[in-house]
Amino acid sequence: MIWILIAIIAAYLIYHFLSGDIRKASKVIAYSLNVKPTMVVECIGSMRTDPSPALGKSSRQQYYCSSVIRAHGNLEELGSLVKVFYICQILKNPHDENVLWWANRLKDCGFDSQITALDRQTFEMFFEVEHSAFKDFTNEHNKMFI
Question: InterPro entries, alphabetically (predicted)?
Fold first, then answer.
């Protein structure tokens, strides 16, 4: 009986240790945009997990989480990282009403809804997308808000 309790506690501690950065990063973004953290966790979970030569041994997903945690409180630095989540949400559901809802959410929380070339490049670093089609998508998105 005691071994089962010890195994459950050990499993919880391992889970807590391994998922710490994802939970912290999701809370930072979720509270910045006033959305549920589970939406952000879903987005982070769909990121590329392969390591980038420029990032050393950490995966792109780990790098995103650590960047969000470091940028906490700095809206300028957090802006491009929030845009990664924003783009993920509008790609998941590109319906006009959904895009407008997310754009208004960003504006209400102090972020710009225009997708710049830097935002596009940042998103491409964390997600696998076809470059020219994604560029066309962001151009159409930006025309919608001009």
Answer: DUF1198
